[in-house]
Write a structure and sequence with these properties.
Blueprint (H helix, E strand, L loop, with lengths): L8 H49 L7 H51 L5 H39 L2
Helix pairs in contact: 1-2, 1-3, 2-3
Length: 161
Protein backbone atom coordinates (compact mmCIF):
# COMPACT_ATOMS: atom_id res chain seq x y z
CA UNK A 1 0.00 0.00 0.00
CA UNK A 2 2.66 2.44 -1.07
CA UNK A 3 2.07 5.29 -3.48
CA UNK A 4 4.56 8.01 -4.36
CA UNK A 5 6.10 9.42 -1.17
CA UNK A 6 3.76 7.52 1.12
CA UNK A 7 5.42 4.95 3.35
CA UNK A 8 4.16 1.78 4.90
CA UNK A 9 4.17 1.54 8.68
CA UNK A 10 7.10 -0.87 8.55
CA UNK A 11 9.13 1.49 6.39
CA UNK A 12 8.33 4.39 8.71
CA UNK A 13 9.52 2.37 11.71
CA UNK A 14 12.68 1.42 9.83
CA UNK A 15 13.32 5.08 9.05
CA UNK A 16 12.72 6.00 12.67
CA UNK A 17 15.25 3.42 13.79
CA UNK A 18 17.95 4.49 11.32
CA UNK A 19 19.18 7.28 13.64
CA UNK A 20 19.35 4.65 16.39
CA UNK A 21 22.61 3.44 14.87
CA UNK A 22 24.04 6.89 15.48
CA UNK A 23 22.50 6.97 18.96
CA UNK A 24 24.22 3.66 19.72
CA UNK A 25 27.57 4.95 18.46
CA UNK A 26 27.22 8.15 20.45
CA UNK A 27 26.27 6.12 23.51
CA UNK A 28 29.47 4.11 23.34
CA UNK A 29 31.54 7.25 22.97
CA UNK A 30 29.59 8.90 25.79
CA UNK A 31 30.44 5.99 28.06
CA UNK A 32 34.14 6.16 27.30
CA UNK A 33 34.37 9.95 27.46
CA UNK A 34 32.43 9.95 30.76
CA UNK A 35 35.02 7.60 32.23
CA UNK A 36 37.78 9.83 30.93
CA UNK A 37 36.08 12.90 32.40
CA UNK A 38 35.87 11.16 35.79
CA UNK A 39 39.56 10.28 35.63
CA UNK A 40 40.60 13.83 34.77
CA UNK A 41 38.40 15.33 37.49
CA UNK A 42 39.75 12.84 40.06
CA UNK A 43 43.32 13.69 39.03
CA UNK A 44 42.57 17.40 39.46
CA UNK A 45 41.13 16.76 42.90
CA UNK A 46 44.13 14.68 43.98
CA UNK A 47 46.62 17.28 42.76
CA UNK A 48 44.62 20.07 44.38
CA UNK A 49 44.61 18.19 47.69
CA UNK A 50 48.38 17.64 47.43
CA UNK A 51 48.84 21.35 46.66
CA UNK A 52 46.78 22.31 49.74
CA UNK A 53 48.85 20.05 51.99
CA UNK A 54 52.13 21.38 50.60
CA UNK A 55 50.93 24.98 50.81
CA UNK A 56 49.96 24.58 54.44
CA UNK A 57 53.50 23.34 55.17
CA UNK A 58 55.21 26.09 53.14
CA UNK A 59 55.73 28.33 56.17
CA UNK A 60 57.60 25.61 58.07
CA UNK A 61 61.38 26.01 58.35
CA UNK A 62 62.16 22.57 56.84
CA UNK A 63 60.18 23.35 53.65
CA UNK A 64 62.83 22.89 50.95
CA UNK A 65 63.40 23.47 47.26
CA UNK A 66 62.01 20.06 46.35
CA UNK A 67 58.67 20.96 47.88
CA UNK A 68 58.72 24.33 46.08
CA UNK A 69 59.45 22.58 42.79
CA UNK A 70 56.61 20.15 43.44
CA UNK A 71 54.22 23.05 44.10
CA UNK A 72 55.22 24.66 40.79
CA UNK A 73 54.85 21.33 39.00
CA UNK A 74 51.38 20.83 40.50
CA UNK A 75 50.33 24.34 39.47
CA UNK A 76 51.40 23.69 35.86
CA UNK A 77 49.73 20.29 35.80
CA UNK A 78 46.50 21.68 37.23
CA UNK A 79 46.41 24.39 34.57
CA UNK A 80 46.87 21.81 31.82
CA UNK A 81 44.43 19.36 33.38
CA UNK A 82 41.75 22.04 33.61
CA UNK A 83 42.18 22.75 29.90
CA UNK A 84 41.94 19.03 29.26
CA UNK A 85 38.84 18.75 31.45
CA UNK A 86 37.25 21.54 29.39
CA UNK A 87 37.91 19.61 26.17
CA UNK A 88 36.52 16.38 27.63
CA UNK A 89 33.48 18.28 28.90
CA UNK A 90 32.95 19.80 25.45
CA UNK A 91 33.20 16.38 23.86
CA UNK A 92 30.73 14.99 26.39
CA UNK A 93 28.30 17.83 25.71
CA UNK A 94 28.62 17.39 21.94
CA UNK A 95 27.88 13.67 22.14
CA UNK A 96 24.89 14.33 24.41
CA UNK A 97 23.49 17.00 22.09
CA UNK A 98 24.07 14.71 19.10
CA UNK A 99 22.08 11.94 20.80
CA UNK A 100 19.27 14.42 21.45
CA UNK A 101 19.29 15.48 17.80
CA UNK A 102 19.21 11.87 16.59
CA UNK A 103 16.29 11.12 18.92
CA UNK A 104 14.57 14.26 17.61
CA UNK A 105 15.17 13.01 14.06
CA UNK A 106 13.46 9.72 14.91
CA UNK A 107 10.53 11.53 16.49
CA UNK A 108 10.18 13.85 13.51
CA UNK A 109 10.19 10.90 11.10
CA UNK A 110 7.42 9.27 13.12
CA UNK A 111 5.48 12.51 13.37
CA UNK A 112 5.88 13.10 9.64
CA UNK A 113 4.49 9.66 8.89
CA UNK A 114 1.66 9.56 11.37
CA UNK A 115 0.58 13.22 11.18
CA UNK A 116 0.86 13.39 7.39
CA UNK A 117 2.78 16.66 7.53
CA UNK A 118 4.63 16.96 4.26
CA UNK A 119 6.77 19.96 5.21
CA UNK A 120 8.92 18.10 7.78
CA UNK A 121 11.33 16.47 5.33
CA UNK A 122 13.76 19.40 5.38
CA UNK A 123 13.52 19.64 9.18
CA UNK A 124 14.24 15.91 9.47
CA UNK A 125 17.30 16.20 7.24
CA UNK A 126 18.46 19.33 9.07
CA UNK A 127 18.18 17.69 12.51
CA UNK A 128 20.04 14.58 11.35
CA UNK A 129 22.79 16.64 9.68
CA UNK A 130 23.07 18.87 12.75
CA UNK A 131 23.48 15.72 14.84
CA UNK A 132 26.28 14.54 12.57
CA UNK A 133 28.06 17.90 12.71
CA UNK A 134 27.80 18.07 16.51
CA UNK A 135 28.95 14.46 16.75
CA UNK A 136 31.97 15.33 14.58
CA UNK A 137 32.77 18.28 16.86
CA UNK A 138 32.75 15.87 19.81
CA UNK A 139 35.21 13.63 18.00
CA UNK A 140 37.50 16.64 17.36
CA UNK A 141 37.39 17.64 21.05
CA UNK A 142 38.18 14.04 22.02
CA UNK A 143 41.15 13.99 19.63
CA UNK A 144 42.54 17.23 21.10
CA UNK A 145 42.03 15.78 24.57
CA UNK A 146 44.09 12.75 23.61
CA UNK A 147 46.91 14.99 22.42
CA UNK A 148 46.69 17.11 25.57
CA UNK A 149 46.65 14.00 27.76
CA UNK A 150 49.91 12.81 26.26
CA UNK A 151 51.46 16.25 26.73
CA UNK A 152 50.51 16.28 30.43
CA UNK A 153 51.90 12.79 31.02
CA UNK A 154 55.12 13.69 29.20
CA UNK A 155 55.47 16.84 31.30
CA UNK A 156 54.83 14.90 34.51
CA UNK A 157 57.60 12.42 33.66
CA UNK A 158 60.09 15.14 32.64
CA UNK A 159 59.30 17.27 35.73
CA UNK A 160 60.13 14.39 38.07
CA UNK A 161 63.52 13.66 36.47
Amino acid sequence: MQTGDNLTVIQAIQLMLAPAVMINGCGLLLLSISNKFSSVVNRVRLLNEERRKLSSRSSEPNFGTQENQRLESIARQLDRLLKRARMVRNSLLCYSIAVALFVLTSLLIGFDYFAFVLQLKSVIIASFMAGLVIFFCGVIFAAFDTLKGYEIVRYDVVADE
